[in-house]
Design goal:
two-stranded antiparallel ribbon, 3-stranded antiparallel sheet, mainly alpha
C-alpha cells in the first residue's frame, strides 16, 4: 500500500500546486507588455539567445523563415484571394472518379493532392488525373438559401442513372454513408488551410528575427481570416451544411448535444434521407473550417498564439503593424467568435483538447480567469476520466496522443 499512498499524496500535492497557480493568476495582473499565451517574454528571450549562440537553434529559426518564404513574396491582395468567401469543403471520402474501385478505394481519404503552386487544381496520387476535368463536371448543386450560399459537386454515373432515388444508394460512400465528391469544395479547403497554416510560423519568424515584414504578413493572414470566418458555415464530414448563422449552430449543438435539434430544412444535404442527427453530427464531425472540433480548436489556438506574438509589433519607425480596425476584427470575429463557439462543447473525450487549450489561451490573452479555469478543468477531468491510474489511455495506447493533443500545452499556457 505504500506506493499507492505515495501516489495519492503526489496527486493531491500536484492539485494543490495547480489550484495555487490559478488563485495567483486570478489575483495578479497579466504581463503589461509582451506575449502572454503559449510563449512568454522570458521564453522569447531564451529563444533569441539560443539563436545567437547555437547552430541547432538557428536551424529551427531558419525552418520558420523557409516555411513562409513563398507568402513573404506575396501581397495582401494575393492572400485575400487565396481565402475563399464560400464555406470550405471537406476531405473525407473525396475519391478519384477516374480510378475509384481500381486504384483508390471507395471512401478513401487523402486521395487528392494539392499544391499552393497550382492552387486551383487537384491531382489523384494514384492515377495522376487532374481536376477539375470537363469529363467529370460538377453538375450537382447544394444550396443554403437562408445564408445565401451554393455549392457544387460531381454526380457519379450510377447516381445520375437513378435521379429519382435520393437516398444516396448509388452515390459514392464514406463510412457506409453517401457523400458527394466536390473538387471545388476540396480546393477551397486546401487553400484556406494553407493560408491559415502560415500564421504561426510567420509570427515565430517575426519574434526570432525582428523583421517587421514577417509580422506584417501574419497580420494580413489573420485579418483576412477574420473577414472570412463569420461567413463560413458549420458543415459536417458527410457534406451536410447547416443553413444558419454559425454562432447559432454552435449554441444549439451545446444546448442539445450531440447533434442539436434543427428544423429539417436547415440541414442541407444532397441526400435528404440522411439529414437526421447522424448527418448533422454535432461538434464531433462539424466545424466552420475543419469538419471536427479537434481540428477547429487547433486552428483557432494557433491563430490566437500568432496574434499574441505580433499584437505589439511595430515597424522601424515605430508605427504599429496592426491597425485598431485589424485588432478589433481579429479579436472579435476570429478569436472570440471561434472560442465562444467551442465553449459550447462540454464533452470530455479524445477531441476536446484543442478547444480547452484555446479557452486557456484566450483567457490568458484577455485576462479572463474563467476561461483559464475551463482549460485546466479540461486537462484534469480528461486525465481522471480517460486514463487508467497507470497512465494508459482507456481507449488504447495509440489514442493517448489524440486525447492529450492540445491539452499538453495548458500547463505552459497558464504558467
Amino acid at each position: 500500500m505504500k506506493p499507492l499512498r505515495q501516489l495519492m499524496v503526489a496527486l493531491v500535492t500536484a492539485g494543490v500546486v495547480i489550484m495555487s497557480m490559478l488563485t495567483a493568476y486570478a489575483q495578479l495582473p497579466a504581463e503589461a507588455d509582451g506575449p502572454r499565451t503559449l510563449y512568454k517574454v522570458r521564453n522569447i528571450e531564451i529563444a533569441r539567445e539560443n539563436v545567437e549562440r547555437y547552430e541547432w537553434a538557428r536551424k529551427i529559426a531558419d525552418g520558420f523563415t523557409s516555411r513562409v518564404s513563398l507568402i513573404m513574396g506575396k501581397d495582401r491582395a494575393w492572400i485575400e484571394d487565396m481565402l475563399p468567401e464560400l464555406t470550405p469543403g471537406v476531405s473525407y471520402g473525396q475519391v478519384c472518379p477516374r480510378c475509384v474501385g481500381e486504384q483508390c478505394s471507395m471512401g478513401e481519404s487523402g486521395v487528392m493532392r494539392w499544391s499552393v503552386s497550382n492552387p486551383d487544381q487537384l491531382t489523384c496520387k494514384y492515377c495522376g488525373a487532374v481536376y477539375p476535368d470537363p469529363e467529370f463536371p460538377e453538375t450537382g448543386t447544394l444550396t443554403a438559401p437562408k445564408m445565401g450560399q451554393s455549392f457544387t459537386y460531381y454526380i457519379p454515373a450510377a447516381e445520375a442513372a437513378h435521379p429519382e432515388d435520393r437516398t444516396g444508394a448509388h452515390a459514392y460512400r464514406w463510412a457506409s454513408w453517401p457523400v458527394h465528391v466536390s473538387f471545388s469544395g476540396l480546393i477551397r479547403l486546401n487553400r484556406a488551410q494553407w493560408v491559415a497554416g502560415q500564421a504561426l510560423p510567420l509570427a515565430k519568424a517575426w519574434v526570432l528575427t525582428g523583421d517587421a515584414e514577417y509580422a506584417e504578413r501574419c497580420a494580413w493572414v489573420l485579418d483576412a481570416l477574420a473577414q472570412r470566418y463569420p461567413r463560413w458555415l458549420y458543415h459536417t464530414y458527410y457534406g451536410t451544411v447547416v443553413d444558419l448563422p454559425p454562432a447559432e449552430v454552435a449554441a444549439e449543438y451545446g444546448a442539445n448535444p450531440p447533434s442539436g435539434k434543427f428544423d429539417p430544412e436547415v440541414l442541407r444535404t444532397a441526400f435528404p434521407e440522411h439529414a437526421g442527427s447522424l448527418n448533422a453530427k454535432g461538434f464531433w464531425g462539424a466545424g466552420r473550417l475543419h469538419a471536427g472540433v479537434g481540428g477547429e480548436g487547433s486552428f483557432l489556438l494557433n491563430c490566437t498564439v500568432a496574434y499574441d506574438l505580433i499584437r505589439e509589433a511595430v515597424y522601424e519607425d515605430g508605427t504599429p503593424v496592426l491597425t485598431a480596425e485589424m485588432h478589433e476584427r481579429i479579436t472579435r470575429d476570429l478569436i472570440e467568435a471561434g472560442c465562444s463557439d467551442l465553449e459550447n462543447y462540454a464533452r470530455i473525450d479524445n477531441k476536446c483538447g484543442p478547444g480547452r487549450a484555446l479557452s486557456a489561451a484566450v483567457g490568458q490573452l484577455f485576462e479572463q480567469p474563467q476561461r483559464v479555469r475551463r482549460g485546466l478543468e479540461g486537462l484534469t477531468t480528461l486525465l481522471e476520466q480517460c486514463f487508467h491510474f497507470d497512465g494508459f489511455c482507456m481507449e488504447s495506447p495509440s489514442y493517448s496522443s489524440m486525447h492529450l493533443g492540445g491539452l499538453y500545452e495548458i500547463p505552459d499556457l497558464i504558467a
